[in-house]
Hints:
The structure is a single chain. By secondary structure, this protein is an alpha/beta fold. It has helices at residues 34-45, 79-97, 103-136, 138-141, 147-153, 162-171, 191-201, 216-226, 244-280, 295-328, 344-364, 367-390, 392-435, 438-449, 487-501, 526-541, 555-561, 600-613, 623-637, 647-653, 672-685, 689-696; strands at residues 5-6, 16-17, 23-28, 50-54, 456-460, 470-474, 479-480, 513-518, 547-552, 573-581, 584-590. Helices cover 54% and strands 8% of the residues. The strands form three sheets. The protein has a six-stranded mixed β-sheet with strand order 4-8-9-3-10-11, sandwiched between helices. It has a three-stranded antiparallel β-sheet with strand order 5-6-7, with no helix packed on it. A two-stranded antiparallel sheet has the order 1-2. Strand 10 (573-581) and strand 11 form a beta hairpin.
Amino acid sequence: MIEYIELPTNRFRQNRLENLKSKNFIFGKNGTGKSSIVTCIEEQYSEEYDVRVFQGYERIVAEQGQLNSIALGTENVALQPRIEEAEAVVRKLQTELGNENSGLYKALNDQYAKVKTIKDDFDKFFSDSARKLKYEHPELVGITYNKIGFKRDISLRKKVSDKELNNAETNINQNIVQTGTIVEYTCESLSPYIESVNQLLAVDIIEPTSLSFNSDVERNWVQSGISLHENIGTCLFCGADLLLERKELLRDYFNDSVKEINHAIISLLNEIKHLKLKVKDMNDIDESCFLTMYNLRVKDLNLQLSKIRENKLCILDVLETKLKEKQNNIFSIVKQVEISDNNNDFEAFGEEYRKLYDENYCANNEVENIKIHARNVLLADIIFQICDSYGYSNKIAVLLSEEADLSHKENYISEKEQSLKEAQERVSFLKRQTVDETIAADTINRLLAGLGNKSFTLVKSSSDDQNGSYIIHDYNGSVRDIKSLSTGEKNIVAFLWFVSNLENLVLAESKSQVVIFDDPMNSNDDTTQYLIISELQKLIKANNGKQIFLLTHNVHFYLNTRYNYWKNSPSKKCTYHLIKNGTHTDIKLISDEVQDLKTAYDALWRELKWLFDNEEAKPEYLLNPIRRIIETFEKFNCINNMCRNFSEAEKLFDVNSHSIDDLDAELNGKDKVAIIEILKNVFSDNHASEHFNSHWKQTL
């Protein structure tokens, strides 16, 4: 069972409607948010409960059927003068209508001829245009194309742009291609390699303090001589003795530091060589794997790829050159490379290529649809040109105008013919009265037999194409058009259907039912009101596991539906009153019979009392119920103006000067107590102090 409802705070001051029971009654005037509560129940609990909502007949009753009732009447006057008058009307109408050579019939025939001439011209245009398309563009329309096809396709006519035409001409000849698998283009950023090369170029091999070389030439000469003096104790150049310590110092210097740097250079050169091969291996996109419509985009991507390859190779060439320069001058600091590699261009290329591949793959599966669309574009442009040359738009406007004139003449003549027929029938009718008066009597009796009887019956339609539909039978079996039903009759049909459908086992769900009646009264007379109230009382009293919500603004309906409400299991029932408080609605829980409504007039006093007690309600909010209280009291007691002796009260409470929603009267700083004191004085002035005190029950 639903125990609470979350409410929108922009409509209600409370954010919850709590302490709900199995039977819930919510009373509030229109505009207090009853329908909003219904919406909240549906949105919050439709998945958990089988929520059924009745909000009138619009969703339940469909207007179908044919009205077959007949109403007749007769006049008891001297027959002969009336017959002569009717015959004069017949002669006048016959003259006005004329024949094929005069009057309205001749004008109608002339209009028929005019419309036919225009239509014949159109028919020739359709035939000629279809023939032109069939012979000049058989690839678009086929060899069996005729005027029927052209009339069908004329709605496609459209001025097409040159770009659309070019695309269509390309796409109409498009064939399915072998897309192949997507190429995984990979190319790493060269920035790390640039950084590594620059680090090597900046390396400076520090000489031991005991070694001193005047130049790189001297240093390289010594390095190359180390291997020659490996096993010799004297210098081959000068014959001097070579100390073992000197040889070991030279060997450590050149073999360790130089060898390490040289090894790094060679390693980087190999990596650069490998990178060059990878860049060169990035082949262009194969155009044959793409639809013709994508050729330009493929060429553009290949151009991007070519520039990327060139840029990468250029950078790698520079790095390679610099490394070799360092290799040849290993003891010197070589100027670093001032170049950068932004790999974003390659990533953008890859993303665009993958996107194009996906588009091409999808489009390749839709080639037939693409060709059909291209055909429609080309055909639309050709038909537009044909129609534009013919002046189709202007001529169709002329045809429509002439057809409208023809329809007007037909309708006018039809009205005249109907008037003539009615006049002739009137003549016959009146003449029949002179022969046999019982005919008129029988007609009147049949009419009287149906007066005052409002019963009707739903009968299942036997027509094959109306399965599940019902026709309306009057009490005597005659068929009525559903359109003849009043709003109240439709509402009672819908209500009874709704109530009976609650027990429909075929539509029943495993979830518990929540049944909501949102203002079920709708233009019903006393008889149908009684029936609705009776059915609702049965439903409310039934112990069938349903949770019921009844929302209404009708005090009479509210009170009668709740007959013996406070005497029968009040613990299973819950009552709330909705009261407008400015732009928001306040919710008041009614916990006993004393707080509940007794009449519509009583409801106004309770609303006034609630607004008086509510600290958040502004003083001007009291004026609306006060005006209606005074207006009701005046009408019931035949008082012309209760406020006649109180000019201030007239200004505040004059029901003829303010609408029921007017809250802008000038209060001149008066608080709620002062306003009620004025109201009390008005009632006292009209000898109704006891009436005021009994309804107010408040010590001032």
